[in-house]
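Practice problem. Given the sequence and the SMILES for zinc ion, write out the predicted structure.
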Amino acid sequence: MRHEGLLGATFADGGVGAGYAEGKVLIVKLGDRDLEPEEYHVRPDNEITGWAHVCSCGWRGTHWRRAATPRDQDLPARRVWSPHPSPPMDTIDLISGHEYGEHIAPVRDDVLASLPHLPADRALTAVGQARELGASWTDIATAAGLTPEDAHARWQHAPVQVFTRRHGAQLAALTRLCTPAD
Ligand SMILES: [Zn+2]
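Answer key:
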């Protein structure tokens, strides 16, 4: 199970948007279902009703509603105003930071705990996964019983997928669907 987190714009019917351009939002998820790339479509960004951090595994963070006006903003009630399709910069950490970190931590710990028991080739993959999930070289070294220098020397070429096929498909769709026709 991959864990790819996304701070998504939400819509009244459960649609989740992953990118914005030209007043449009690219919808990549409906409810808990990730859409296939050929199902991606766009909606006007003024239909955004809020924001939530979502994960490809189905996990979903607390929903923040979009306030109708600046005066309606109420952060303790998780109602935030933004004139843009993205939430204000200073609330992004509030919306997505801590909860997602807590969601990912046990997954990362499981990967780290498996390290000492894996054959070399699978250990390399596991180190890459741990890095994707935010583990430091110190975390990896401690789990493997090595010094950070030795851990880095052994696994520095572990494959880390920062940019996944899903990201690539979303970027292509954003260009195709949200760029104005000439
Ligand atoms: Zn997840």
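Check your answer against the key. The chain has two domains: 5-99+163-178, 103-155.
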